[in-house]
Structures are given as structure tokens and as C-alpha cells.
Design brief:
Largest sheet: 7 strands, mixed
Number of strands: 18
Helix content: 40-55%
Distance between the termini: 71 Å
Number of helices: 16
Radius of gyration: 37 Å
Structural class: alpha+beta
Length: 684
């Protein structure tokens, strides 16, 4: 491990920074003067700078004009430059097209062999040096039908006996999102370039081999111990990254023939990238389920699976557009995941700091590749070494857990040996402790069962009741996008969409409140309140609101058993009881015509306080009456939120009353109004 980290931290960076170009040696107006350059002592040269550009023209060296034939200065473009990111003559930014580049390099006449490493070009190109065709990859063409892509970096050899090197490149792209040379040719002595490439290849193979070895190790660990799903997810993550590194490394692709078509190689590369997101997301979620939200884990899984499906179904070049979207979304979700890890570290979770370091290294590698693709920075591919460093850091927590498990086994063995003295007493102590633990576990199991039931209800209800509003919203939006809605009607459609969204918001809020109530996770502020104080609190609370709705409102109170003269007391959360009454009265208002009357009655007997809401509205059919306190039950059976209600108000009221130890019921005769009442026990 120490040797690998040494290579990563000290030797690895030499690959990326040992071959920089002298920033003063850049091409000007299609010319680069390297006469007198000390090739033996100084590094090889990246041919950056201004190249001649002949856009939408595929010219051979014989067809290119000599300077004397030019009527004006040639078109120049600074390389490296993707076509997407730089203005082209009379064209918008686009990755599709074809062009010819030329650069004249002045060298000292020499019989020494020089090497030119062709840059990172993902489609098709031809390269001439001094009029001789030196490399041809894919089929260069002027349209989709006449071109054929291939990814194969090349190193060509030549001797500058005449003291010059005219480099001509033809490039075409109709199959990839990024077009043009994202990198520049690399010129140097053949022996030095070969040595640098071999060093780079060795480091890349270390990174790829390390990723694959780590992946195999943790998958094998999962096979031996199936409960460790973290090991399985982490192993899959490493295998996917290692496989992808085989396809993206220029050095590995240069020295190995994979034997796949261009489209298949690109598809495998992208699929490995996309599926790595769900693997690492589940790994972190399983490690820290309290800090990483389930929603974030689902979003990461959805991003990876959705991008994978698009990569499988879409043909080039469309599947390459998915990568750009994935990188942006993955960086945002990865930052959220990193924030969750910071929370875990703040809470002193085991190994959180090492996972943070690993996640930061992986995000840095991803950001580096993104910046490389947009030419904001210029080094070789970062992902292989950066991701290996990240996985090594993240794997520490799995190793720490294994060590902790071994330590626990050793500690348990010592404790077993200590049981020889006073075994019977220890058994009695352990039995008593186990009984206490068992009672605690029974309570915990009841809570877990209640929470699981609540979770299933929540998911079931969300999927059931969100379908219709989402379908309607989708229909309205598609109508707006397709242009079938007249301009004067667009505001109307936007209001419809807004109302649907408000209904969904109310529904989701009620759902979560109901789920918390069912799981007994809602906090209640229970206080002892006299019934007289409670009646005064609600006496005039709703009168103004109902008057505004065109309804009459009256309250009355009756004490059936006066008792010893002391006011009866109830233990309640007055705000929750207010919510119950609001839900019941709101339900009555919806079903009572204007001019109707709503009565609020309080009755105190020997054991309880009964609160009753009576209206003279449409009433409830006998077949509907047993179900009005169920989730989403509405007498029109239409389970939607268009009417302004979620169908959850009475269900929430029932849960609140149940928590207070009371009960709730309803009486009604169709066409003669309805009466909803609830009972709260008095304090004895």
C-alpha cells in the first residue's frame, strides 16, 4: 500500500507535468520556429498556437495554397480547440464538420529520427508530414455517409533532413458531440517520446490494474460474506472505473487492440461511467444511511440507470450528448453526497474523513476530465490515477470495519474465557440483562413495524394519487410545447398547471404529516386545559371565516354532570385539536350551500368531553359513511386534488384523536346534513 501511494503522490504527477511545452514556443500565423532548440536537454514540444484552418475543405498538401498564392492572410485558429468551444468562419459553434489544418515547423536539418504523437481525436483524421501521408485513422469525409469514425492515437516517425516539417491534418466529425482536435500534436526525439509514452503507459496500467484488483477483492469479500453489501457496491464501482479506464487512456489504446467497433467501444465506455454513479451512491448510502438522504440515493441511481438506457438506445452522435448532461448532473449530486459526508464527519462517524478524501479525489478527477473536454486546463487524462487514489482512500473504511470485526472476535474470546469463574452468577446477570434488552427490542420492533407500515402507505399513496395530476400537468405542458395552445389561452393553461402544482403540494404536505402521525413521530405539546378554557378558545374562532363564506355559525355548551364544582380538565395539544376542528369544519363548509348553518356543540359528561360539528348540507350516503376517515376517500371516488382537498383531512383528524386516547365518529342522513363528533377523556 505504501509503495502504491508513493507512486500516486510523487511519481504519478511526473506523468502530467514532466512534458510541458515552453509557453514562449507557440506557433504564430501558422509558423513555429524550433531552430536551435536543445532537444536533448529540454522537453518535447506541444505544437500549440495558431494553425492555418481551411474550414469545410478537405485539402491534401498539394492542394493547399502556398503563401504567395494567398490573396490575404489565411484563417488562423489557436490549438488545442474543439469546434464546439471556438468560433469558426461563418459558422455557429458545433461539433459537426470537417476541416484541414496546417502548421509549418522550422527545424535544424538532422538525420535524427523524430516522433510526432497525434493528439486525442475521437473520430477520423489523416496526417501528412512534408507531403507524405503518415497516418490515417477512420475515414475522413464531408458528410455522415462518407465518413467513418475510429479512435486510435498514433505516433509517426520522420527525419527532418531538409530542416522543416509541414504538418497537415484533415479531420472530420459527424458522430461525436465534440469535434476537432481537443489536444495538439506532440513533437520530440523518437527515443524520448517513446520513453515518455512507456512511462505514461506503465502508470496508467498501474492505475487500471489497481482499480480492477480492488474491485475483484471486494466482490470476493462479498461472496464470502453476503451481508456486506457495501463491499459489493464498492467492488462494482472499482471494476466499472477500471474497465472504463481501458477505453479512455490514450496510451493503453495506442498500445493495445481492443477489437471492438468505434460505437461499441464508446458505448461501453459511457455505460461504465453511468453505472458507476449508482454503485458509489449506494456504497455511501449504506455506510451512512442517517446522513445521506434516500432521495439523494434515488436521484443518483435514477441518473445512472437513465443515462445507461439512453446510451444503449441512442445512436451516435446523440449518445455522446448524454455524457455532458451526466457529467453536470453527477457533479451536482456528487457535491451533495460530499456535503452529506461532511455531516457524517462532523458527527464523528467511523471512517468519514477517508471517504471524504476519496470522494473529493473522484470529484476532482471528474472535474478535471470536464475541464479537459472544454480546454480550460491542459494536462493528460486525470481520471485513472485520481480515481485510484480516491478508491484507495474510500476502501480504508471497509478495511477498518474488517479489522474492527476481528478485534471484536478476539475480545469476545477473552470474555468467554473469563466466564469460567462464577459462571452461574454471570448467567443470571446476562439473563436479566437479556430480558431487559428483549423488552426494549420488542418496543423497537413495534416502532419499526409501525414506521414500515407508514412508509409503505406513504409510497403507495404517493404513487396512486400523484398519477392523475402529473398526467394532467404533462398534458398541459406538452400542449404548450407543441404550440397547439393559442397565445391568448397560454395564461389559462399556466394557471391550470399552477393550481395542479399547489394541489400536489398540499397533498404531499398532508401525506407526510399523516405518515408521521401513524409512525408516532409527530411531536405533541400536551398540556392540561380546563374544558371552560377550551370552549372559550373555540367560541368565536370560526365565526368570521364562515360568515365570509355565506354560512351561519353558532356554538353551544352543556355540562351534564356538574360534579364537585371544579372545572373538568383534559390533557391535549390545543394546536392539534384546533387542526382537527379546522379539518372537520372545512369539510362541512365544502358540503354546505350558501345560507346554510354550521353548529359547534360542546358536551361535558362524567368521563369525557364531546365536540360535535353539525351542518345542514348535502349529507353523506350510508354506503360512504364507514369510510370517510380512510385515506383519500371522497364520495365522488375521483381521488384528485382539483377540488382543493387532498382527501386526507379526516384521516389526519382521526390519527390526532387516537393519539389523545379519544375516538371520532360520524352520523348523517343523505340530504339532511351530517354530524361529525369526537370524544376526549377527562383527567381523573
Amino acid at each position: 500500500m505504501a509503495i502504491v501511494l508513493f507512486i500516486l503522490l510523487f511519481v504519478g504527477p511526473l506523468k502530467y507535468f514532466s512534458t510541458p511545452s515552453d509557453l514562449r514556443l507557440t506557433a504564430k500565423a501558422g509558423e513555429l520556429d524550433l531552430q536551435g532548440y536543445d532537444w536533448e536537454q529540454r522537453p518535447s514540444i506541444r505544437l500549440n498556437g495558431e494553425w492555418e484552418l481551411y474550414w469545410r475543405r478537405l485539402l491534401t498538401p498539394e492542394q493547399l495554397p502556398v503563401p504567395a498564392q494567398l490573396s490575404g492572410p489565411p484563417n488562423l485558429v489557436k490549438l488545442p480547440a474543439h469546434w464546439n468551444n471556438h468560433s469558426l468562419p461563418s459558422e455557429e459553434k458545433s461539433g459537426k464538420g470537417f476541416a484541414t489544418y496546417r502548421l509549418n515547423v522550422a527545424l535544424d536539418p538532422s538525420t535524427r529520427m523524430f516522433a510526432l504523437q497525434i493528439p486525442y481525436i475521437r473520430t477520423a483524421y489523416k496526417v501528412w508530414i512534408n507531403g507524405v501521408l503518415m497516418a490515417e485513422v477512420g475515414k475522413v469525409g464531408s458528410d455522415l455517409a462518407s465518413s467513418s469514425p475510429e479512435y486510435a492515437p498514433r505516433v509517426v516517425l520522420f527525419t527532418p533532413s531538409e530542416g522543416r516539417a509541414e504538418i497537415v491534418m484533415q479531420i472530420s466529425n459527424f458522430h461525436h458531440w465534440n469535434g476537432g482536435p481537443g489536444n495538439t500534436p506532440y513533437l520530440g526525439w523518437a527515443s524520448k517520446v517513446d520513453a515518455e509514452l512507456k512511462t505514461s503507459l506503465g502508470l496508467d496500467m498501474i492505475a487500471v490494474g489497481g482499480l480492477l484488483a480492488i474491485g475483484v477483492h471486494y466482490i470476493a469479500q462479498f461472496v464470502l460474506r453476503r451481508k456486506e453489501m457495501e463491499s459489493f457496491c464498492f467492488g462494482i464501482f472499482c471494476l466499472l472505473l477500471g474497465t472504463r479506464a481501458l477505453f479512455v487512456s490514450e496510451e493503453i489504446v495506442t498500445h493495445g487492440e481492443i477489437g471492438l467497433s468505434w460505437a461499441d467501444s464508446l458505448r461501453i465506455e459511457n455505460i461504465c461511467l453511468f453505472l458507476s454513479a449508482p454503485a458509489i451512491g449506494m456504497f455511501v448510502y449504506l455506510l451512512y444511511p442517517k446522513e445521506v438522504s434516500r432521495l439523494l440515493a434515488h436521484l443518483i441511481i435514477g441518473l445512472g440507470v437513465g443515462s445507461t438506457l439512453l446510451a444503449v438506445m441512442l445512436p451516435p452522435p446523440w449518445m455522446t450528448y448524454v455524457v455532458t448532461f451526466f457529467q453536470g448532473a453527477a457533479f451536482i449530486l456528487g457535491a451533495c453526497l460530499l456535503a452529506s459526508l461532511v455531516v457524517a464527519w462532523h458527527r464523528s462517524r467511523e471512517g468519514a474523513m477517508f471517504v471524504i478524501m476519496g470522494a473529493a479525489a473522484c470529484l476532482g478527477a471528474m472535474l478535471g476530465d470536464k475541464l479537459l473536454g472544454n480546454e480550460y486546463i491542459y494536462v493528460d487524462q486525470l481520471s485513472a490515477m485520481g480515481l485510484l487514489l480516491g478508491t484507495l482512500c474510500a476502501s480504508f473504511i471497509l478495511s477498518a470495519r474488517s479489522a474492527k470485526a476481528i478485534t471484536s472476535v478476539e475480545l469476545l474470546s477473552r470474555q468467554m474465557r473469563e466466564l469460567n469463574a462464577g459462571l452461574e452468577q454471570k448467567i443470571r446477570d446476562r439473563t436479566a440483562e437479556l430480558e431487559r434488552i428483549n423488552r426494549s427490542l420488542e418496543l423497537v420492533n413495534e416502532d419499526l413495524a409501525r414506521m414500515e407500515t407508514s412508509r409503505r402507505h406513504l409510497l403507495s399513496n404517493i404513487s396512486h394519487d400523484l398519477g392523475t395530476p402529473m398526467t394532467l400537468i404533462q398534458g398541459y405542458v406538452e400542449a404548450l410545447m407543441d404550440g397547439v395552445v393559442m397565445p391568448e389561452q397560454q395564461q389559462k393553461y399556466l394557471k391550470l398547471i399552477h393550481n395542479r402544482i399547489l394541489g400536489l403540494s398540499r397533498l404531499i404536505k398532508d401525506l407526510f404529516q399523516l405518515s408521521k402521525l401513524e409512525a408516532r413521530q409527530m411531536e405533541f405539546d400536551i398540556q392540561t386545559v380546563s374544558t371552560d378554557e377550551l370552549i372559550r378558545f373555540f367560541d368565536e374562532r370560526y365565526e368570521l371565516e364562515l360568515a365570509g363564506a355565506g354560512l351561519g355559525f353558532e356554538t353551544s355548551a352543556a355540562v351534564l354532570h356538574p360534579g364537585d364544582g371544579k372545572p373538568p380538565m383534559v390533557r391535549i395539544d390545543i394546536n392539534r385539536i384546533d387542526q382537527v376542528l379546522t379539518n372537520i369544519i372545512y369539510n362541512a363548509v365544502k358540503h354546505t350551500p350558501q345560507g346554510g348553518m354550521i353548529l359547534l356543540q360542546f358536551t361535558v359528561d362524567e368521563h369525557s368531553l364531546v365536540v360535535q360539528v353539525q351542518d345542514n348540507g348535502s349529507g353523506i350516503a350510508p354506503e360512504d359513511l364507514p369510510y370517510i376517515f380512510d385515506r383519500f376517500y371522497k364520495k365522488d371516488k375521483s381521488r384528485n386534488t382539483s377540488g382543493g382537498g387532498s382527501g386526507l383531512g379526516l384521516a389526519i383528524a382521526k390519527e390526532i384523536i387516537d393519539f389523545h386516547g379519544g375516538r371520532i365518529w360520524a352520523h348523517s342522513r343523505l340530504g339532511q346534513g351530517a354530524s361529525l363528533a369526537f370524544m376526549l377523556p377527562l383527567v381523573k
